[in-house]
Specification:
two-stranded antiparallel sheet; Ntn_hydrolases_N; 95 residues; 2 helices; alpha+beta; threonine-type endopeptidase activity
Length: 95
Amino acid sequence: MTLLGDIIPPFLWLLTRQPFAVGGSGSSYVYGFVDAEYRRGMNKQECQQFVVNTLSLAMNRDGSSGGVAYIVTIDEHGTEEKVILGNQLPTFFDQ
């Protein structure tokens, strides 16, 4: 069943504040990792490494993901952009 034709509004337009969001074609592979590894109060470098690790795990499992990780960090000082090539991404287990 759909509401409003082909549009399904998330939670009937209810927006709630959450500490993080996970989405995309590889997201179903990393929910457990994110739930286990996310910590409030991480510094900038810890947050960036957390995101890189999460993307690496998702990209390894999802056939529609891959290539490079493009990371944008936004803070009170502005934005920082990083491109991490596939061969520079961390590996886990027998990847």
